[in-house]
Amino acid sequence: MSSLLLTPEQRQIISQTGKFLLIDAVAGSGKTTTLAHCVAYRERQGTPADGILALVFTEAAKQVFHQRLAQAGASRSVRVATYADFAGALLADWQAQGLIDGAEVYLADAEAMRPYVFEAIEEAAADPHADPDYAYDLNNLHAEIVINQLSRLKGTLAFARFEDASDAELADELDLPRGLVSICRTYERLRRFDAGHFAFQCEHDLVTDVLATCAQLADVVTLPCPALVVADEWHDANAAQIALLRKLTGPHTRIIAAGDKEQVVHSWNGADPRYMGEAFEHLFPGTRRLPLTNSFRCGPTLGACAQALTAQTFQSGRQDDTEVEVIRYDAGADDCCIKVVHEIARLAAAGTERGLADCAVVLRDAHQSIALENALIAHDVPYATDGCPSYFDRIEILMLRGILHIARQSMAPVRERGEVKAILRALGLFAGLSYTEGEWADAERTIAADPDTIRYFYSGRLSRTSEAQETVDAATRRWRARFAQVCDHLIAQAASVSAGELLAFAAEELQLAATTRRLFVHRLDAQAVTRSIEGFIDYARSTALDAAGLLERLHQAQRRSGALKKNKHPLTLTTARAAKGKEWRYVHIPFVADGEFPQAQADPAEERRLFYVAMTRTSDKLFLYAPAGQESHFIRALDLPAARQTAHAKPAAPALPPRIYLDVPYAEKDAAKQLGAQWDNVQRKWWISPAMPRRLFAKWLPPDDGGARS
Questions:
Q1: 439, 490, 554, 690: most buried by Cβ count inside 10 Å?
Q2: Any idea which of 7-21, 489-503, 576-590, 696-710 has the lowest mean pLDDT?
Q3: Would you say 104 and 198 are in contact if contact means Cβ atoms under 8 Å apart?
């Protein structure tokens, strides 16, 4: 956005002089642009560039902020950093000064963290007081769960807040299994040697390590106190990041934070709507709050819908409208998906080469993608998943496919080793199978070469229960024994019973819902996986195919899906959380029904915010798909008839602009000033009011001014 197009709200924000400013923005209102102009303005007022810090959350946001700074005319030497980068640089600087020992090993990603997580799992399991009801599994899924929980515990500062609590007390407070809490605490104990000295460290540790080091070595280390700190996307901030910002605040530090309280959708990881309100004001007394209510993305109809949903002022800064259409379908996912594909095909046919790339289908959750992906594949619509895996790659679906392969005693038609690997490891995960990488590689190679050898993998490993053969816990032995009984039944019935009925029998007899809760310890994750299993079984039933027929269909569909994803301009298939911060011309939200969006057992307030995020990703048109007579109460909350009436009402005659900006060369500034022109220190231009005689300023008026030379 050019500085000449700044709105009155933006100009007020940029020129305000208070110490602490919180910007309450709506989606698409130019938060980053406004903050960049705040930086440029403070520079012109004399704040040195090296005294300014801009904090963002991701590397992508960092690049965008640099671009906005350049457009605003700010210095290239203004520092823009993610919270982790900034904290990491502080720790490195303290270590270089000899103030702390720092970390002996830096773990660049989750794969590098995994051995240390496994060590923590083994040590926690060996504790005499270990949780007898918790499965201390040494597999990648469990490691991922532990890593995610570590991130949550650090972001919420739970380790520090509940330092003196027992594992059981902390588990009750956070609604987590005691065994998982014990593993996370063991991991931290293994990681920390002493104040400022760590055995290993990853990105998730950096901010909390800075905070802990400051608390433990307050007389040794010092933090910088920038003259100005601007914080973008503040609605994503968690307790640790806020604590860091508070510590950076010196007597003369100015803080400007911008966010949208209706985009707080990461509460599980510590984000909280209060940080966009009373909590911020408590931490930064005297905070002034200013709004950004004009969205440059959402047109009048969608803007009015967003205002009705959230009860916050939401105005449109666009001349073009963003239409909202509710498309109703008969009960059933297939009919919904057919209607979605029909609308997408119609838009693509009417658009340019990038027609599909301008479209996104935004799901509430990844488990809803099964019917939709099948419809896209059936109609040859190129698509790519973003922020969520294809259903072909989800571990619970791979496990169900593996059960069907066992039932027919062959891995055929799958022969590609990568696919064989994924299916075998999914089966092994649900069965609690411990293999070395060498053993896994040998099994994958053997079965890929001879698909019928999967029967030996089943009989020799998956159904093994003897402790003499392998050390497994009692729960896993019981599950494997039941698994063997169920699979023997499936093998006997495979030739005469449909794949859907085979899977339904397996799901009930193996109590897959309970197994899912054991593997996916977070309640909502387990529910999503359970619904994914149910959805796949429903799909299998709808085909009426036997095991061989369904596996062949899935194999061909997966191959076709891979080919479609190679298209240069595919449709985007994503989830509401993954779509945050992105924008498309056309957004389709299927399954907008109570129980689906919003989900039945989720926090109602966060579900509303998630729906707001999903619907405000579009600039041209929003498509909402709801079952006839069973639509989500979110659709009713939009009050679409009133929104359309507001958008289509005859606009009032535009008011005269409060300022007319002049193109005054520097050599003529005194002449313009003598005639009555005034200087705008934000826009860096001379201006006059509409009431002043323009003929006096004719040579400086912009060429497109209607009465410029009258």
A1: 554
A2: 696-710
A3: yes
